[in-house]
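Box S1 | Example of a co-folding query
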Amino acid sequence: MRHPSPYHAPGFYDTALAQGRHRDIVGGRWDETPRIVLPLLAQHGLTGSDTLLDIGAGSLRLGRHLVADLPAGHYWATDLSRALMLKGWETELDEDTRLKLPPDHLIEDADFAFPAIPDTITVALAFAVFTHLPADHLSRALANLRRFPALRRVIFTVFLAPEGTTGPHRQADGVVTHADRFPWHMDSLQVIEIAEKYGFSALNHPHRLPRGQALFTADPA
Ligand SMILES: C[S@@+](CC[C@H](N)C(=O)[O-])C[C@H]1O[C@@H](n2cnc3c(N)ncnc32)[C@H](O)[C@@H]1O
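Box S1 (continued) | Returned holo structure for S-adenosylmethionine
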């Protein structure tokens, strides 16, 4: 059986982490990604008093900056691999930042079930996560995010292809995406309909993002 993404191959994280590849695992671009993404998060409403859930946070490529910018204890993260998040915590955070992020805020979660995430979450982010997964994962995430009473915005990226695309699609910076295998694309209407189904009103924002990803915000309707 084909795995939905390379992350799901047996032993993927163990092997890559043993080789010291925790930055590569999340796509490298270690400085470029936060330089582009952090101002967009502020533009789309993330403030210094929010409580953030960083879904699929990886080795904290964005998290290391977000923890520093938010009040202590206001950053929570989930990922398919807790070992990957812990590697980021150990190696990429300075001591002050580590003090602001208790390791029990880094939670392994393969199903977008968000176990042990508190009700105080106000914003959820999933950057470069649903680009790696079939559309039912976005559905599951949005369905399960509905239980957070203070949530006012979800910010996420996907790869888009024009409606009716049947074959592969080449993104702006060259990545070739697919409807039926990794890296996955959807069409814009499909994203908006999934969001609506789970009670969110979604908007596609025309930013230029690494690898040609498209950014959406989804607000509880
Ligand atoms: C390209 S990386 C992006 C990491 C981080 N969001 C960033 O931008 O630096 C994709 C991340 O999604 C995580 N991931 C893949 N499948 C997942 C799943 N089913 N549930 C949670 N996280 C998943 C991977 O472990 C990886 O850390």
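The CA atoms of residues 54 and 77 lie 5 Å apart. Helices lie at 12-18, 22-25, 32-43, 63-69, 82-92, 95-100, 135-145, 188-197.
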